[in-house]
Each structure stands twice: as C-alpha cells, then as structure tokens.
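hiii so um. not sure if this is the right channel but i have a protein structure encoded as tokens and i wanna go backwards to a sequence. like what aa goes where. can anyone help
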C-alpha cells in the first residue's frame, strides 16, 4: 500500500490553516472515552457549567442533572431558536444544511471549534480501521455537484465523488478503483450498486482499507456482499446533519456511540433524543432527532462508548406495518425476512415495501431476484405468518424502482392516506 503522504499532509495543513486542530480534539475524544463513566460525567458537568446551553423552555442547563429534567426540543423550536439567534447577531463560520427526510429543512451553524470536534470524532472512528481523515476518499453520492465551492471542498477533503448509476456506471466504477482510494464512503444503496457492477467485471484493484455505509439501513447480507466484492471491511455509520457522526460500527459489529460530547437517549414516545453538551452556536438540548433506535450495552472496548445502537428503526411513521387499525407489527420484520432470503439464496438486491392500505404490502426490488419477485413475496408472507400468526398479503409491485438512489431512504414506506380510517 502506497501512502500518499504529501497529499494527506496537505489536507491536514489546510485544516490547520482553517483553524481546525483535528489532532488535538481527536486526542481529547480518545481521552474522554478512556475515562470511567463517572470521570467522563464530571468532565461533561464542568463543560455544561461553563457553557450553560438553553433548553427548549429557555432555562440554562448547567449540569447533567439539569439536563435530565429538561423538556425536549423539536425541529420547529430549533428553527425558531436559530432565527432568533441570527437576529441577535449570532456569528458562525460554517453552515450545514439539509432538506431533511421529513421535508422540514434543518439549518445548522457551527463555529470552528464545533466543526473541528466533529471532524475529530470522524478521525477517531477512521483510525479504528487504520485510516486517517484526510486520506483519499471515494464518495458514492448523488450526482457530483457542479460549482467552484463544492470542487474546492472536495479538494480540501481529498475526495472525489462518483455516481455509479446510469449508462456510464461501469466506467464510473472502473475510474473509482483506478484512482485507488484509501476508503469508500457513501449511501448503502450506491455502494451496493457499485458492488454489483464490479462483481460482473474482471478488474484488478487494490482493496480500500474500509467501506463506510452511511444514511440508509443496510442488511447484514448486503454488507457481507459489499465486503466480499470490495475485499474490505464494511462499517456502518449513523449520523445526522445536526451532529455528524453519532455512532460508528467497530470490527466486531457494534454501532458504538462515538462522540463523547453527544448524549443519546431513547424516549419511548419521541424516539432518539440527542444533546450536544459542547455546542455554543446553537443550543441542542434534548433534541428530537426523529429516528427510532434501540440502545444496548456491551463489554466491547474497541470503540467509543459501551453503549451501541442495536436496532435502527428509522423514521417514526415507517416503524410499523398495519394489518388493521389495531393490529400492527414491526417493519423490521420485512428486513429480517429479506435478509434471511438473501442469505439462503446467496444473492443481494435492494428492496422497498410500500403500504397503501391495511393488511396489504407491495414489494419493489432493485433487480429481480433469481426466482422472481413472486417467489420472494411468497417467502415474506410465509415468514410473516410465523411472526404475526395470520396471513399477510405481500405482492410484487408493478414497476421496478429506478436505481436513482441519491436520497436517504428506508426499506419500508408507510404510505397510507392520513384519513384512511374514514
Ligand atoms: Zn464493539
């Protein structure tokens, strides 16, 4: 493996020139995670006492105790808070913006310290796979953005964007591998797409150190396939625009919480609630992220917190499949069924299940399974019968989904009309 030191060092120098001391903060991340829970709590308490972020009731939060008793903050409240801050002349250097999967845009502004902390957490995660932030990244994303600003950003970050979809897909994958990236980063659906193309090509290539899947749910069978084809470990990242990386998968398969300043709780009714105790540009105190996750603890010391995200259940509306108004089952069951089908038949494809009415599910797949969609639909029905104890109607949807996978998506879309009871 050639280490392209000059280019890597250039990126790190550019970070420093921008006032982003990544290494210093990464060491702080390592140190915080090396502490016991009690010592870490002391350190976070000190930080809160100094910063005193406001909770959604406008009360200063000066300790972890005060945090616990704080009300949660929803996206609308955050938007209002940010607008107010702007009027008061709040100044931040870096903006992050997302259209949001819920259709509600989120505007996040960061100062240098905050951006440096985020990048440091990323660097910390990457090191687990023998990588450093600033090494060559092949990013599988939506179509590459035009414009000088994104070109400059890609240059600074030492990355190139590839879009392995459409008539040029094969050339795109070949170009990607010839560029010899240190790692691949992107949406699971695009990585899967690229893996399938590569699988059909006879191409010699140097395996990357790691393939990082972000933003979408990915099945274990799909991950195993991506890993096999690219001859590299696959790590799942869970994050959001507001917090960047929240959880990162270790080589033993736990999605550990990795940002020591970001606290994650699981509220029964509101889903994932997240606080950044270090943030000063915005107050993100018990913020409702809109995702549902289940947290568990492990003895595994490989990365970050002992707490890890066991299940990623996605957006609230897409959590449950309904048989009738009062009968539902967890949409994760679809993923379990398809994962089992893929393991048994030794093939991979993407799928999405749509629900337009009670008790009836339409199945789409990116490519037809070897035995056809009808066979897969029957298999899922059979699996669900064992789970819910009654027949569940699963049918193949009419048209193949276009593999235009540049938006974050899940495998289950609950698309019933809001007034379907009427
Ligand atoms: Zn682990």
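sure thing!! here u go:
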């Amino acid at each position: 493996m050639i280490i392209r030191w000059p280019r890597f060092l250039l990126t790190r120098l550019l970070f420093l020139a921008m006032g982003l001391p990544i290494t210093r903060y990464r060491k702080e991340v390592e140190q915080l995670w090396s502490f016991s829970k009690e010592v870490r709590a002391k350190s976070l308490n000190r930080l809160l006492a100094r910063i005193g972020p406001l909770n959604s009731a406008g009360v200063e939060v000066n300790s972890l105790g005060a945090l616990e008793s704080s009300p949660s903050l929803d996206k609308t409240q955050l938007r209002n808070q940010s607008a107010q801050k702007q009027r008061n002349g709040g100044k931040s250097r870096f903006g992050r913006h997302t259209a949001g999967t819920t259709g509600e845009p989120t505007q996040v502004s960061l100062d240098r310290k905050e951006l440096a902390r985020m990048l440091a957490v990323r660097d910390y995660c990457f090191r687990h796979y023998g990588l450093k932030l600033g090494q060559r990244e092949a990013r599988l994303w939506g179509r590459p953005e035009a414009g000088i600003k994104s070109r400059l950003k890609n240059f600074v970050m030492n990355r190139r964007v590839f879009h392995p979809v459409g008539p040029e897909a094969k050339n795109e994958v070949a170009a990607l591998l010839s560029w010899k990236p240190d790692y691949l980063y992107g949406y699971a659906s695009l990585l899967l797409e690229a893996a399938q193309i590569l699988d059909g090509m006879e191409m010699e290539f140097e395996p990357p150190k790691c393939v990082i899947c972000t933003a979408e749910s990915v099945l274990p069978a799909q991950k195993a396939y991506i890993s096999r084809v690219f001859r590299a470990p696959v790590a799942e990242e869970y994050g959001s625009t507001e917090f960047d990386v929240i959880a990162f998968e270790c080589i033993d398969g736990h999605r550990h919480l990795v940002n020591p300043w970001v606290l994650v709780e699981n509220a029964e009714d509101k889903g994932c609630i997240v606080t950044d105790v270090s943030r000063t540009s915005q107050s993100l105190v018990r913020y409702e992220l809109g995702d549902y996750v289940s947290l568990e603890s492990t003895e595994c010391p490989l990365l970050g917190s002992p707490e890890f995200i066991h299940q990623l259940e996605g957006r609230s509306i897409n959590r449950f499949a309904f048989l009738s108004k009062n009968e539902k089952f967890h949409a994760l069951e679809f993923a379990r069924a398809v994962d089992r089908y893929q393991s048994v038949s030794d093939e991979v494809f993407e799928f999405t299940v749509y629900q337009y009415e009670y008790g009836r599910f339409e199945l789409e797949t990116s490519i037809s399974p070897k035995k056809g969609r009808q066979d897969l639909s029957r298999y899922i029905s059979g699996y669900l019968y064992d789970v819910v104890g009654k027949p569940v109607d699963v049918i193949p949807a009419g048209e193949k989904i276009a593999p235009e996978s540049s938006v974050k998506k899940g495998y289950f879309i609950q698309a019933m009309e809001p007034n379907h009871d009427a």
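oh and The two ends are 64 Å apart (CA to CA).
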